[in-house]
Amino acid sequence: MSTPHNAANSGDIAQTVLLPGDPLRAKVISERFLKDAVQFNSVRNMYGFTGTYEGKRVSVMGTGMGMPSMGIYASELVKFYDVKNLIRIGSCGAITDKTRIGSIVMAQGACTDSNFAHQYDLPGTYSAIASYDLLSKAVESARSRKFDFEVGNIVSTDIFYNETEEWKKWAKMGCLANEMESYALYCIAARAGVNALALFTVSDSLVTGEATSAAERENNFTGMMQIALDVAASL
C-alpha cells in the first residue's frame, strides 16, 4: 500500500512513529537507538525506518519543514498505515528569556498564524492540543532523567523569515517558542482520533540571538529523543 510520498507496504510501519523534520535525523535515530532497523521509505529522500526499542516496535520518519509538508506525511500515516501515536521531535526557537538553549519544550498546545484548520469548516478558532496520555508520559520521563524542560504553548508559524517581530506578541500571551509544524500535526491527529505530541529542543533564541549549528541540531538532541523513545516504549 504505497502512496505518492511513501513506499512502505502495509505492516511496514509501527503504530508509534517518531517524526523529526530532518530526514537525516531520522536516520541518526534509527542507527543510534533502534534495534534491527529496516528502511521503509526513501521517496524524495524522506527517510523512514522501523525497528524495536526495549522490545517495542517503533518507526521514525522525516516530515520536512512547514505545515503543508507535515500535513502530507502525518495524514498518510494515519489514513493509510494505521498509525496511532505521532510524536514530533524537532527544534524550536525560544521567544522568552526563561527558555534556554538546549532545554526541552513540550507543546501542551499549539497556537498558529496559519489557516490550516480552515479545511474542517469549523464555526470558530480551533485550539490544537497534545494527547494528555503522551504528554504525561513525557513529563514522567523527563523528570526521572532530570532533564531541563518546560511544558506550555508554542507557536506554529508559516513564516521563518518574518518581516515583523510578531513573536513578541505571542510571548506576551505566554507562548514559549516558535516552530513550524505542530499545529497541523495536532489537527490531523484530532480529526483522525489518534494521539499526538510535539517535543522540541531549543536550538536558538529570538530574545538573545544565540543559535546552534545544523550539525548540532542533527546529532545532539539526544535528551528529546530519549524522552520520545521512553514514551514509545510505554505504549
Quick gist of this model?
The chain is 31% helix and 29% strand.
Structural account:
This protein has 235 residues and is α/β, with parallel strands linked by helices. 31% of the residues lie in helices and 29% in strands. It has seven helices and ten strands. The protein has helices at residues 23-33, 67-80, 132-144, 167-172, 182-192, 214-219, 222-234, and strands at 16-20, 35-41, 48-53, 56-61, 85-94, 104-112, 128-129, 149-156, 177-179, 195-205. A five-stranded mixed barrel has the order 5-9-8-6-10. Helix 2 (67-80) packs parallel to helix 5 and helix 3 (132-144) crosses helix 7. The longest helix is centred in the first third of the chain and has 14 residues, at 67-80. The radius of gyration is 16 Å and the shape is globular. The two termini are 25 Å apart.
Feature tags:
235 residues; five-stranded mixed barrel; 31% helix
Q: Strands of the biggest beta sheet: in what spatial order?
A: 5-9-8-6-10
Cα-atom Rg, whole angstroms? 16 Å
Number of helices: 7
Shape, principal axes of CA atoms: globular
* Percent helix: 25-40%
Share of residues in strands: 25-35%
Number of strands: 10
Measure the end-to-end span.
25 Å
Q: What order do the helices and strands follow?
A: EHEEEHEEEHEHEHEHH
Arithmetic mean of pLDDT: 96
Low-confidence stretches: none
